[in-house]
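Holo model, coenzyme A. Inputs:
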Amino acid sequence: MVHTVIIGTGCHVPARVLTNQDLEKMVDTSDEWITTRSGIKERRISSKDEPCSFLATQAAKKALDMAQVKAAELDMIIVCTLTPDMLMPTAACLVQKNLGAEKAAAFDLSAACSGFLYGLATADNFIRNNISLKILVIGAEVLSCRVNWKDRNTSVLFGDGAGAVVVTGRNGKRGILSNHLHADGTLWKLLHIPGGGCVSPPSRQMLDDNLQYIHMQGRDVFKLAVRAMEESAREALESNNLSPQDIDLYIPHQANMRIINSIAERLQIPREKVYVNIHKYGNTSAATIPIALDEANREGRIKEGDLVMLNAFGGGFTWGASLIRW
Ligand code: COA
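Output:
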């Protein structure tokens, strides 16, 4: 049986730390409010020299190093992002250039905070057709460029960073067991960036109306996130005849500690099996899961044969789950 296996992980975050105390000086908020409502203590913010493709490249180099794969051996690069350096070319083409991965096809994939799961599932399908492919899947975001730093409802939640995996095919029981992807476009207005696309192209008016920023109805998003993530987690387990008790490490999208706690409680996954790093980075959208996966991997939290569940939710709406036998 051919399975897609993760043979290397890596992550990179910008050096600049923005703490809750820093935010207290920027908007009407408090460390206490942010911590109790979201679990976030600080986040990383990119400088002009650290665009999406830079963060992605740094994370990719570490993943390639761990995988002992040369950039020239890569067949494909998928960058999952909603904040590419520019609209054209893709961030993936810039990563391909930075790495010198001459033979790799390269494209961006946009599914907001579920992006990495969509990217991993895409790579998995290519590899199931050709076991020898080596694919780099990266989640990378510079959300700070889309945050209205005067809006306390959103500015406290988001951050910048990137995580990457190298995947290839192997015969055996290890690898990605299944992916479960979903979307509901009828809910698009609850979480969106209205400006900068063809509906509201860049203009003075667009900027004056703050359409370039993230717009969110937090309370509705919260409820939908819990329900959708729980449902897709159960779907993934059931389709593999597994139960929540079989999970060795649960890696959820890091959007809000209360969302993570609610799902873990509903699925009855004990705290020690839930990977959390939201306090350090906030919500880095498509990057949260690959960053967490890399940190868990390097901390020795995942052993060969462990069952790892990835579970995400994001704008669109999009959501999903992937189960991996490590
Ligand atoms: N600091 C202080 N007060 C704030 C605040 C901030 N940063 N942001 C909002 N508030 C205020 C609100 O204005 C409101 O005040 P009011 O009662 O006087 O109107 C009060 O806090 C409660 O707001 P509410 O929106 O009900 O809080 P909440 O408990 O739902 O928490 C979120 C808000 C945004 C943290 C929460 O809804 C959430 O995390 N939602 C999901 C968002 C998400 O994950 N998005 C990405 C998905 S991929």
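The chain has a mean pLDDT of 98. The longest helix spans residues 218-239.
Archived with the compound record.
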